[in-house]
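assembly run, all chains below
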Amino acid sequence: MKINGVHIENTFAEAFPMKATRLIITAANDTWADHAARALTGFATSVIACGCEAGIERTLEPHETPDGRPGISVLLFTMSKKELIKQIQNRVGQCVLTCPTTACYTGLEEGDRIPLGKYLRFFGDGYQISKKFGDKRYWRVPVMDGEFVCEEETHIAPAIGGGNFLILAKNQHAALLASEAAIEAMRRVPNVIMPFPGGVVRSGSKVGSKYKALPASTNHRFCPTLKGLVDNDLTPEVGAVLEIVIDGLDAKSIDQATRVGIRAACSVGTRKGIISISAGNYGGNLGPHHFKLREILN
Amino acid sequence: MNGVTLTLKREPKASIDCRSLLPESLCEMAAQEIAELVLSEGREMQSVGDLFDIEVASGEQHLRIKGATAALTYIGAGMSRGRLIVDGDAGDYVGYDLSDGELIVNGNVEAFAGSGQKDGLIHIKGSAGDYAGGAADTKMQGLKGGTLMISGACGNYLGYKMRRGIIIAHDFVGDHCANNMIAGTIILGNRCGANLGLGMRRGTVIFLEKLNLDKIKQELPTFNLSGSFSLPIMTVLRHHLHETNHHIAMRLAKIQSVNRYCGDLGYDGQGEILVAN
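ok done. output:
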């Protein structure tokens, strides 16, 4: 199978069940909403060492937010409900509550309830105000620029983490070009995030290491500088590989993101150095979700 | 499930306790079963069939009471679901301890409307007497949740010891509004009488009308002005009310900022009175 001359390998991405939530961050203007969202989703590229994977899903117009101000929706993914609760408390408490003019609301309406502002309210030291409108409770915590409004609870949704595809190119420049095109297209897909810097990861990993302390290590079979040294999955002309990891609230959204991402990457074309598209998996033995590239693209 | 219409046959000789006329039970009963229910009219016991014409029809599932007067007390008391419509006036304790559902009164009501209401919606399209949304008798709390909406004027002690929920009063409100208020939200579309917020512990009173600040200072000696703020929670409230009360939502939309008065300081309270700026 080829798209615009780029070979699509007959393989699949292997993904895992995760827990996720969506938060809506609002502020007096786009800039401060962006500051808070970027802080909250910072250092959240991989659950291996960050505790969670998080990213900005999209920006919201004032009419789309609970308080009529500009907003940003972010998605947080963890391996367990307990860890998600912890990450929300830490990240909202340190990155949103602290950011001028912000407020924080749930972006999901279904699923088990987990605390959002339930414990953050204690920062108010007894001066916090509860407001219950319908089924929702909000906390108004007095802060130095006015009030931090935070919904008491958010919801937890079953999700999928680790959807991915690999862009194999002649050189680093070509791989970057295709990755940037893919990410631009994928950012328009709802319910997904690409948690790595700029949405792209260069340090694709395999499970385990020769060093016992490490749970993961470099995926040497895709490292071009190791060609000739180890058994390798790369053809001689491949000089750089970049990976795009996708976390999503459902398989359909990951399918769509994969589809538009690969098509955008392939649109760069063989002339500019894109050789093939592959995906990372562990032989299908670890993750229950398999995203077969050719099926998705068909 | 049926639609049930009860039409009062005659002027009551004394107050009739209507707490057993609930949509969740009557809409599942046949006309004969309803007719055999017994209500107290003062000291006498009367069957529903003696007091009301009963009409049961399939279709829209609600209970409608036609020709109601202020002698009908406890209408919708303890109601937990469904829809109850009252055409005419109603007596004391309308929607008392109502836990869910929708109760609409197309007329005026007497005292203690919505007292102990826990959820759902009560909409009084006429005026309400004293203690609307207030604690009744020896109860410690008034409104506990849901929305109590009053289109006409209100008597004294609106929201007395209110604990949670929203009261919306479109028209003039009497004295002692929000007296000993524990928490919750009262939205006033017009002015109110003396002693607003006396003994208020927590909770919010929102004035949609702009008021004279000097006059407020005189009328609220135990409330201090915090300043003028643009509060995001006002928009959250507006969005919540958008479907149930579009008119109030539109008025809230026009408020850019509010003057916030804190109190009642005489009672070490942390309540707030927000006045449109």
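Residues 2-14+160-297 of chain A form a domain with the Alpha-Beta Plaits fold (CATH 3.30.70.520).

Residues 85 and 266 of chain A are 39 Å apart (CA to CA).

not gonna interpret more than that til we talk
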